[in-house]
Amino acid sequence: MSRDHLPSAERSADSAEAPFLELLARGATADAYEQPVLLARAEGLPAERVAALEQAKLLALRVRTEIEGRRRREAELSALFETAHDLAGLRDLDAVLQAIVQRARSLLGTDIAYLSLNDASRGDTYMRVTEGSVAARFQQLRLGMGEGLGGLVAQTARPYVTDDYFKDERFQHTRTIDAGVQDEGLVAILGVPLMIGPQVIGVLFAADRRARVFEREQIALLGSFAALAAAAIDTANSLAETRSALDRLGRANEIIRDRSGVIERASDVHDRLTELVLRGGGVHDVAAAVSEVLDGTVEFAEPGGTPAMAVEAARAEGHAVRHGDDWVAAVAAGGELLGALVLRGHPGLDPVDQRTLERAAMVTSLLLLARRSASEAEQRVRGELLDDLLDSRDRDPRLLRERAARLHADLDGPHVVLAARLDVTAADADQEAGARRRLWSAASHLATTRHGLAAARDGGTVLLLPLGPGDTATTLARRTAKELGIAVHEAVTVGASAPVDRLAAHPEAVASAYAEGQRCLEALRLLGRAGDGAAAEDFGFLGLLLAGDRDIAGFVGRTIGGVVTYDERRGTDLLRTLDAYFASGMSPARTKDALHVHVNTVAQRLERVGRLLGDDWQSPARTLEIQLALRLHRLSSDGPH
């Protein structure tokens, strides 16, 4: 079909996107996206054209926000990697610290960033590096220990943030500090500790000259820069100690020759790690690269996979520690332990090689954080799409298909909506919240691998999974309950809807299917089948009460469909015989009187029914369902035609 023959609404929507695509292409500001709509209204264009422009504007702004978020995250990781690379080739400590402060200020978008260090000989702390400062007195501040916001950070070894410095009474104000802060015009201040092992050696700050709320991600980012700054200072101190030792021993040339091979290996591993990061390598690639350089076996271990005492010691000291014939370096970010790098069977480790293992652990932590950030972002997008389907917020089939395609999901194929819930009573609210988070994480991973969607809802989790060849709603529910239960180490009950398809065109079907899945879930729990999975079709005639669409024809077909079809094709009276048989108390003798046929005829017909319905058709459970199906079939047949 040519464009001229397209419906006007489609042509309008198609052309409405053009100006916003151009704005996206040239990176226009958010305000610029209002112009096409305002211009259309000013020109008196039709309402449907203005509406199409409004819809295209909203979509374009969402795309712009997503692009900006990705660019921001890429910029943050790039800055961290660049700083780590600077640290790997450390030559001038002041230059590295200045670069850290500059990048922190740029990425957090603050007016000023600065770094203070403790002076153990004088018992105070002093300003070491500033970026964006305009007040000379502020740049030359020396503070007593425990004074100001920095003193609070140093005492607690935790980040602190204040929205309004002069109104905050949590820390000790002094005339000297307040005067310097006032000269600089600072209002909102964030400070994070610089730590070498358990010791606080200084504070890294980011501040604004206006009231501001620092987000959690910004606090974590400044903490990462603080860790790199502390590592740079530690490295510089180590280099100074090495030079001092060389001077005292008087064997500088000989030691340099002895160390040259080790230094080359360290430089080689840093280059390899940088290359791995740039080409998107994983933690096991880092372990393999370090194994080759250190001439040993380096493995990455998940939390709990190594001796706890050794990992905690490495984490507390900030250095790799020896454990028997192995060396352990903690992989941590902020206060969270992410795992450990373990060098096996290498008791005699050169200090530079030890530092190489520690640097590899730091790079591993950055890779894990980057991977987690990407995974969480995808999980949020999957959850948002499923939430929109459940709430029917987005009814544009084309946009729904496009959003699903970006997640490798196909909304036009058959799917099943599954309601999943933990069947465990936690001791307290925190434990219960933790169990729900584990269920959500496991469900999100399952949805990702199955090209489906998942979202947290109503105290549990809802999944939208495609129905594979040979699968039924029942088999999918049972398999999902088993897989989620194994993942979270708890019983997980799953109720499934009947299969639904063409969800992009009919998003309202998702909500009704979810309600049906919840009813099946509650039925399983009431029947004492916690940890199991089932669909409405598993409950016999009770499935009519559980199913969202009251599928009477489906129930009749599953129960007596074979007999109905046989009568229709052969012109027999098996259905009438069944009715008479049950009405006669299942007595063949009374049945033959009701039908006015010979008893042998009744026996032959019942034998045929048994072959069509199965040998157990006269069991109590089956007879109840068969009689109900007969009644429903008779009522539907007696209705208007």
Kindly describe this structure.
The chain is α+β, with helices and mostly antiparallel strands and 641 residues long. The strands form three sheets. A six-stranded antiparallel β-sheet has the order 3-2-1-6-5-4, with helices on both faces. A five-stranded mixed β-sheet has the order 12-13-11-14-15. The protein has a four-stranded antiparallel β-sheet with strand order 7-10-9-8. A hairpin with a 2-residue loop joins strand 8 and strand 9.
In short:
With 641 residues, the chain is an alpha+beta fold. The chain contains 22 helices and 15 strands.
Helix content: 55-70%
Low-confidence stretches: 1-13, 544-549
Instruction: Please compute the radius of gyration using only Cα atoms.
Output: 35 Å
Q: In what order do the strands lie side by side in the largest sheet? A: 3-2-1-6-5-4
Gap between N and C termini? 40 Å
Gross morphology is: elongated
- Count of alpha/pi helices: 22
> Which structural class do you get from the secondary structure elements?
alpha+beta
Overall mean pLDDT score? 79
The biggest beta sheet reads: 6 strands, antiparallel
**Proportion in β-strands:** 5-15%
Number of strands: 15
Task: Map the helices and strands.
Layout: H1 8-25, H2 35-42, H3 47-88, H4 93-108, E1 112-119, E2 124-131, H5 136-139, E3 142-144, H6 148-156, E4 160-162, H7 175-184, E5 188-196, E6 199-208, H8 216-249, H9 252-278, H10 283-294, E7 297-301, H11 308-317, E8 321-323, E9 326-333, E10 336-344, H12 351-391, H13 397-406, E11 415-422, H14 429-449, E12 453-457, E13 460-466, H15 473-488, E14 492-496, H16 508-526, E15 533-535, H17 543-546, H18 552-570, H19 574-583, H20 588-595, H21 599-613, H22 620-638
Parallel strand pairs: 14-15
Antiparallel strand pairs: 1-2, 1-6, 2-3, 4-5, 5-6, 7-10, 8-9, 9-10, 11-13, 11-14, 12-13
Helix pairs in contact: 1-3, 2-3, 3-4, 3-8, 3-12, 4-8, 9-10, 9-12, 10-12, 14-15, 18-22, 19-20, 20-21
